[in-house]
Design brief:
Layout lengths: L4 E6 L3 E5 L4 E6 L3 E6 L11 H22 L9 E8 L4 E8 L3 E8 L2 E9 L2 H13 L13 E9 L2 E8 L11 H19 L2
Length: 200
C-alpha cells in the first residue's frame, strides 16, 4: 500500500427507496473505497463510520428532492380546451381552441360551420398552469347548462373524457370573479391576450 495515502473500505449497503412511486432508485452496494492523501489537511479517514453513512444518505436524499422538484405536470396527448361566446341576434360564435402542444386556433361561425385559423402558441409552462387551475377548480365536477342572449361555453377534453359547461356572459369577466366558471373563462382569455401581445 502506498505510504502517501490511506484507504477506507465501507462494507455497508445503502438502499434509497422513493416511497411515493414505490420504486427503488438506487443501491450503493458492496464496497466503496475512499482514498485520502495524507497531505490533505482534512483527514476523513479518522471520521466515524456512522458520520460517513449519515452524510452519504443526506446527499442522495438531496438529489432525490432536486429530481422531484424538476418534475413537471404532463399534458395528456388528447388534451384540448375550447372556449367561446355565441348567441345574440345573429347566433354567431367566436372562440379559441388550445391543443396539448399549446397551439392556439381562433374559430368562428354558426353552429358546426366554423372557420379556424392559427394565432400563436402557448408556452408549456403557461399550458401547465392553465390545466392546473382547471384541476384545482374541479372543473369536471361542475354542472352548468345555462343559456342567455350571449352564452359562454367551455369544453375540456382529456384522457378520453369530454366535459362542457355553458353559462351567461357577464359584462366584464375577471380573474377574481366569485363564479368559478366565469373566473376560468377570464383566465383563458387572459392567456390568449398574452400570446396575442407577443405577435408582431
Amino acid at each position: 500500500m502506498d505510504e502517501n495515502s490511506h484507504h477506507m473500505v465501507c462494507e455497508k449497503n445503502i438502499w434509497i427507496i422513493c416511497s411515493p412511486v414505490r420504486i427503488c432508485l438506487w443501491r450503493i452496494g458492496a464496497k466503496c473505497q475512499l482514498t485520502m492523501d495524507v497531505r490533505n489537511p482534512v483527514n476523513l479517514v479518522n471520521l466515524p463510520l456512522y458520520v460517513m453513512k449519515k452524510n452519504l444518505l443526506l446527499f442522495f436524499l438531496c438529489c432525490m428532492g432536486g429530481f422531484a422538484g424538476c418534475k413537471s405536470q404532463k399534458i395528456p396527448t388528447d388534451f384540448s380546451l375550447s372556449f367561446g361566446v355565441g348567441g345574440g341576434f345573429t347566433g354567431r360564435w367566436n372562440g379559441y381552441a388550445i391543443d396539448h402542444l399549446g397551439n392556439i386556433h381562433e374559430w368562428q361561425g354558426l353552429g358546426s360551420q366554423k372557420q379556424t385559423a392559427p394565432i400563436g402558441v402557448l408556452s408549456k409552462k403557461e399550458l401547465q398552469t392553465l390545466l392546473k387551475t382547471f384541476q384545482k377548480a374541479k372543473f369536471e365536477e361542475i354542472n352548468r347548462d345555462e343559456t342567455a342572449n350571449m352564452t359562454v361555453q367551455i369544453t375540456l377534453s382529456q384522457r378520453g373524457k369530454i366535459h362542457s359547461v355553458r353559462f351567461p356572459l357577464s359584462n366584464e369577466p375577471t380573474t377574481s370573479d366569485q363564479d368559478p366558471v366565469t373566473r376560468l373563462y377570464a383566465l383563458c382569455m387572459q392567456a390568449i391576450r398574452n400570446v396575442s401581445a407577443q405577435i408582431p
